[in-house]
Design a protein that fits this description.
Radius of gyration: 14 Å
Number of helices: 3
Structural class: mainly alpha
Distance between the termini: 39 Å
Largest sheet: none
Number of strands: 0
Mean pLDDT: 79
Helix content: 55-70%
Strand content: under 5%
Low-confidence stretches: none
Shape: elongated
């Protein structure tokens, strides 16, 4: 489940065309993947994995709620 940062390069490249909710979720996941990569050799990368995927889901969920609330 460890993500190497270069696997998410596409997400950073396409963020200007994403909705703000999706943009924040993908940027969060990319930032956490850097943490997994940098701490991989010490073996303590699970906090970054958990924080990355939970934050990703949270940001997408919050963005979805805000999108539904803003529509008439």
């Amino acid at each position: 489940v460890n993500l190497h940062p270069w696997y998410l390069t596409f997400a950073v490249l396409v963020t200007p065309w994403m909705s703000p909710a999706h943009r924040l979720a993908w940027l969060w996941l990319c930032a956490c993947s850097l943490g997994t990569y940098l701490s991989y050799s010490q073996g303590v990368y699970w906090p970054f994995v958990i924080a990355g995927w939970l934050g990703f889901a949270l940001f997408l969920g919050i963005g979805g709620i805000r999108t539904r609330q803003s529509k008439p």
